[in-house]
Amino acid sequence: MATATAGTTRRDFLYIATAAVGAVGTAAAVWPLIHQMNPDASVLALASTEVDLTPIAEGQIVTVKWRGKPVFISHRTKKEIEEARATPLAQLPDPQPDQERVKEGHDQWLVVVGVCTHLGCVPLGHQGDYDGWFCPCHGSHYDTSGRIRQGPAPANLEVPTYEFVSDTSIRIG
Amino acid sequence: MSGHETFQPQNKALAWFERRLPVFGLLHSSFVAYPTPRNLNYWWTFGGILSVMLVVQLVTGIVLVMHFVPTSAGAFDSVEHIMRNVNYGWLLRYIHANGASMFFLAVYIHIFRGLYYGSYKDPREVLWILGVILFLLMMATAFMGYVLPWGQMSFWAATVITNLFSAIPLVGDAIVTWLWGGYSVDEPTLKRFFSLHYLLPFVIFGVVLLHVWALHVVGQNNPDGIDVKSNKDTVPFTPHATVKDSFGLICFFILFAWFVFYIPNYLGHPDNYIPANPLQTPPHIVPEWYFLPFYAILRAIPSKLGGVVAMFASIAVLVFVPWLDTSKVRSARYRPLYRQFFWILLIVCIGLGYLGAKPPEGGYVIAARLLTAYYFIHFLVILPLLGYIETPKPLPASISESVLKKHAGAPAAAGAVRSPERNG
User: Fold this and answer.
1) Exposure pattern of B311-336 as b/e (b: 16+ CB <10 Å)?
2) In chain B, what are the domains?
3) Per the CATH hierarchy, to which homologous superfamily does domain A43-172 belong?
4) Closest-CA distance of chain B to residue A7, Å
5) pLDDT value at position B2?
6) What is the pTM of this model?
7) CB distance B184–A69 less than 8 Å?
8) Looking at the partner chain, which of A67, A137, A139 has a beta carbon nearest the beta carbon of B183?
């Protein structure tokens, strides 16, 4: 056994090495048990969604499903666009200009994930104090650009990755 | 503590077995000869009631699983199948669903009993903390069970509660995706909740055994909050506590039966009879009544992370109560100031529950903030200070003295002289 004078011994080294190998081995064994809960291959393989915009009238908000979540496609009126652009950034809890949230040349189309950034409820369209969305769960108000204006939500409604396939259709994802 | 008698089997076979595995002796010393303070009141019957409720939930739950289908397409229909087609399925499900509420009713009474009589104080700190762990396990189990019928409330409760974890900086979103097994609450979520909802009650069972073990090591507290000093202070568990617990249980079951047979859906939400729809949140979502005070605290804080932290802190603070309470006197009977603050806390908690069911706007938010602040002030400021400010009333010399004094028939001369002094 190690004594005070003998310092470290081969046995100390063996103890530590054994414990280290044991810890690594345990971690390696536990990882599959944890990782099995992450999204599986079939969930990851969910195809992107293509949406035809022609039936969506001006002033209408349409909800489509993408990756199990609702996505709002809002065909905004001129007034709604102006409201969104006239808002000074200083008034926003999560400052972001409206131009960054839409595709250039398609200013009337706002595409956002319809999940409240607070705790995940689906906000209601054309409601709330800012003409955008209102979340009935905990009272977050979003404006016509889907930006958070009032309430407990910390961030703007997320803009998903999407692109215009043509002038009248988009692909989300 | 010494028992009133020891277990000595007369039967030869039993004695043979006992020498090899003394399980009957353990049961005898724990539930027959075990000395209980002779002054226990009916608030002490809720430990036994809770044990029975756990068994009720386990038995009905195991049976319900025989008919339930844990898939997003099949869960809702299988619950309706249980209600309409399975023999006595309606009864089993209503017992299980209302049983959860009764379980929480009993545990809240049990917790406030502990707070009133100082049951968390030296030497019962570990017993108390095990109780807080049981409470957390119960909450997790109840929440996951509520998700299984896959109605609108189930789905959106699952969404909101799992999203609480997204408030964690940096890793929050990854944790939520991991909990869901996808990008939203969906079938993988339902299946894992089903698995854990089956597992956790057995974990609870295990921790209950530790809780009872810890209780039997340190002995029960009692309404006077003073230690047992001699055999005169105690009576054997059987028949005294057994009969008292049974009577309490029967009264509790009358209430339980009233809910099951007359108003089985009173505590539920009609929205949960609408199948889950991931594209539409019900206009007004509220959790089950037993989560409402915590829900009110969550919504009271105008920040996502802050609200989540406050909600978990409101439970975590209970762990530290044995050290936050600086008074040496256990029972509120002898603590004139604490007794008042106890009732204020109880009213505040009920008030938070009321506000948790109201929409998060206007005066409700302001009231919820005030009550949330008071909740924390009670534990973090009032409780530590009271120990220094308060002058407790004189404690009785022993449990037996306090019991015999109270139940003495005609006031003897000595008693009449002594009681004003003791009460003042």
Assistant:
1) beebeebbbbbbebbebebbbbbbbe
2) 32-285 (1.20.810.10), 289-393 (1.10.287)
3) Rieske [2Fe-2S] iron-sulphur domain (2.102.10.10)
4) 40
5) 45
6) 0.88
7) yes
8) A67
